[in-house]
Amino acid sequence: MAVTLTNPVGGSAGAVADARPVLLQATGVCKAFDLPDGNGAFTVLQDIHLAIREGEIVALLGKSGSGKSTLLRILAGLIPPSSGLVVSCGKPVLGPNPDVAMVFQSFALLPWLTVQENVELGLKARGVPREERRQRALQAIDRVGLDGFESAYPKELSGGMKQRVGLARAFVMQPPLLFMDEPFSGLDVLTAENLRSEVADLWAAGNFPARSVLLVTHNIDDAVLLADHVIILGANPGHVRGEVHIDLPRPRERTMPGYEQIKDAIYLAMTNPEADVQQLIAGIDRRAETRFAPLPHARVGGVSGLLELVDERGGAQDIAELAGELNLDTDDLLQFLDAARLLGFAEIQSGAVTLTPVGRAFVEADILESKELFRRQALERVPLLRFIVNTLKSSKRGAMDAEFFLDVLDEHFPADEARRQLETAVEWGRYAELFEYDADKSRLRLPDESLAGAPA
Amino acid sequence: MALRTFPTREALKRLPFGLADVAILLGVIALIYLVAAVGAGALVAFEPPEQLPTISLDPANLPYYLARSTLRMFVAMGFSLAFTFVVGYAAASNRYAEQIIIPTLDVLQSVPVLGFLSVTITGFIALFRGSLLGLEAASVFAIFTSQVWNMTFSFYHSLRNVPGDMQEAAAVYRLSRWARFTQVQAPAGVIGLVWNMVMSFGGGWFFVAASEAISVLNQEYTLPGIGAYVTQAIAQEDMRALLLAMAAMAALVVVIDQVLWRPLIAWADRFKIEQNEATQAPRSWMLELLRRSRVLQAVREALAEAGEKLSARSRRARLARRQTWPRRSLLSVRRVDALFNIVLLLIVLAISGLAIWFIHTEVGFEEMLEVVLLGAATFVRVAIIVVVSTLIWTPLGVVIGMNPRVARIAQPITQFLVSFPANFLFPFITIGLIHFGVSLDIGGILLMALGAQWYILFNVIAGAQSIPNDLREMAANMRVSGWERWRSLIWPAVFPAWVTGAITASGGAWNASIVAEIVSWGNTTLTATGLGAYIAEATGAGDWPRIVLGVGMMCVYVVGLNRLLWRRLYALAETRYRL
């Protein structure tokens, strides 16, 4: 799923027409720098066409030397193009683009100003009165989670916090366009991950302070996790090689079905400068690597009964013996065993089943505790359940038609199997109290307390 | 529970005035009175040779003389600051201005200021005929020319090196030119500027002392001030007055350091560009006092409010137009460049022609050769000073710098030594030289070294302090010690600092030669063979062609040395040994 290809030239010819208005458009942008002593010019960018539409995140992805930062600066009006035209919100860009707020790789905070003064910088230049400036800055600082650090100086902050100030400084402008130049590259891996997912959450929540985002990055994960469109740039001179449309649902996870394929395809494109990006993207076998491993059709009650039996027998049991004793078909038994193994309650080795410590805890716990255990294991180990919960969380009212999930599953399974998969998932999810199922309306809904924000 | 009858600490805090406010208010009133009272002395009549200011050696007059000299220093510093902002900004923001200003400043900072004193004094006296203000202005100008160049350079370099991302942020967030200057560019230059002000101010005392009493064109000019006081004491062989003047000068240096420079340095610390917490930020009791003052806070608040209103109007006008890139086509830029270079070349050719014509008609080539040799004699003295000071002070400076506890004590002391005008010490050495019958040809080296050597010590200490701890630990871990440690770690690490110190020391020594190659005690005068003595004698005799020749030759020596030696060492330090 999730991958379609559009024409590299900003969807202007041949591609499906997008009705959303274009905020920023570059046409035939070239950039060349004069070589010293009049030895001609060095071309950095050649004939770039691209468009950023309202409400989307566009990522410029390229290796060093692809001129992606130069392109960003041309679009931001910081440097003039040698030829070509940039139009922002209907007006040609002939100087610093007033529709853009920017976040820098190196944060670019003024070390002699406090956090609040840094955030107020652009508002002050715009002539916003003092009190209003203060209010808006405090709000933005609060929004990026730096409440209480208003009067700190940048040098007192960690890298991640500095970039939060950079974000607040951009957010407070409420710009039509937010430009982010390698915003997570200056941070350590965990901090970058954390900040990226917060930006993604803000975007998914629907009240992002900018209408569209342009992200420049060399990190494929950044692009696939955040962007609606990824524009892949080639080097020497920089040019647009192709554009990948990503419609993975938000908020995105690395474990989502389709994620790895997109990432692999982009990776392949990046490491093969000669390859045709369109073919690579088109060539992805969308079902080959499905991430929704089929759920075994086992009811929770059956699974826990089986585990109890094994526990009584000292925690380990030969499978053939077990089948005989329960008078069960081996095939049916295997469904239960598969489920127990998927949830991490049991291990199966050389024809015998053994309880894991978690499995033993599950069997010996009281009902509430065992539900808690089950919920934890299910969220951690069952991608389909996680997907359902995350989708519900990102939906407006925490509820979703079952039909939607059926559609998603239809892409992975034959129609009958898709229905059975959903039934099993709903059965497990209800037991774990991950969500509720309204059979009348055929809707899935988050239980009330997790709407209040319990961590998944 | 006992009832409190006295106000709590919190209640006291709520009072509109604190002790800090009272102290600051009194200080401000006293300062205004002092400036007015002392400044009035500069406006008295002056009709040489009938009406001349006289100097009394009565110790009671000493504070007044000190105040007069100090006022001169601050007036010169004010002009230096204004010059720095205007010229430094112009050089950093306009390509053509840069191409003229930077080489000019480079030459001007190498020129012996004292050699020009004769020219400027005559000029200023003519400008303010009949008032002592002319002499005042000449003295202030001499101090100004000794202070200003390094300040301007430092500011220009800071402006040019504002991190690119900050400049981009300023453009993206559409800061006006003024906002860019006040919020991005000037703050980036504050630390360098403050340190150069401190150094310049210290160096300035030397020129106060030298410019207040000078004989130009067969005429003794005396300007009330600490320098004239010392000169008078030397003429009358009054040891007591001399010692008093020195003690007063030392006290003044310490007080100004505590009341002005320490707080400024501590305040400037917030303008550091490195974004990590400093291990030890400089502190100042004076700054704490100022920060505690509520009156000052209210004043600052009011100023911010006023500035807000003032800029709101211009901002609206500015935002109405869209900022655009400078319109320029490549062809015309090349043409303007070519034209510019031709004009520069013509100017240089004209000056060279003028110089040759001047030598040919006014002094003759034989005398020029003689002056070249005199220059060589002074050059040898300068070289000896730099080499010997390096041999003595580099190891000591390193030991001090690498030991934080010693450095904390030694740093203010060396700073004091750099600031204290060395020419105040000249009489003591002179007496010794006369007593032991040593020729000034050799003794002059000692005199010139008196002020110059400290620059090397001061800079080497700073260099040694900045050797990264991990490199020192690495050296210890690898068991690198003794000579090898010096060769591979310490010398390369302090080399850039040493170059800076040695350049300053050498420049200082050249300048000092003009006052150090002729010295007197009472009626005894010692003279050394050298360019400094040549200039001093020509100045005293009012022999214009020889003044010009001597000063010109010294410029050639200093600038030549800068180009051939110091600049290369500096480039080496920048590329190879930068930490």
Please explain how this structure is put together.
The complex is a heterodimer of chains A (456) and B (579). Chain A is an alpha+beta fold and 456 residues long. Chain A has three domains: 3-282, Rossmann fold (3-Layer(aba) Sandwich), CATH 3.40.50.300; 300-364, Orthogonal Bundle (Arc Repressor Mutant, subunit A); 382-451. Chain A has 17 helices and 17 strands. Chain A has helices at 68-75, 115-126, 130-143, 159-171, 189-204, 220-226, 259-271, 277-282, 300-312, 319-326, 330-342, 357-364, 367-381, 383-394, 402-410, 415-431, 448-451, and strands spanning 3-6, 22-34, 41-53, 57-61, 83-88, 91-92, 100-103, 177-181, 212-217, 229-234, 239-246, 316-318, 346-349, 352-355, 399-401, 436-438, 443-445. In chain A, the strands form four sheets. In chain A, strands 1-11-10-4-9-8-7 form a seven-stranded mixed β-sheet, sandwiched between helices. In chain A, strands 3-2-5-6 form a four-stranded antiparallel β-sheet, with helices on one face. In chain A, helix 3 packs across helix 4. Chain B has 579 residues and is an all-alpha fold. Chain B folds into three domains: 62-286, MetI-like fold, CATH 1.10.3720; 331-361; 364-579, MetI-like fold. In chain B, strands 1-2 form a two-stranded antiparallel ribbon. In chain B, helix 19 runs parallel beside helix 20 (531-541). The A-B interface holds A 34, 73, 76-80, 94-98, 100-102, 104-113, 121-122, 124-127, 129-130, 153-156, 162, 169, 173, 179 and B 163, 165-166, 168-169, 171-176, 179, 183-184, 187, 190, 270-278, 305, 308, 312, 315-316, 319, 322-325, 330.
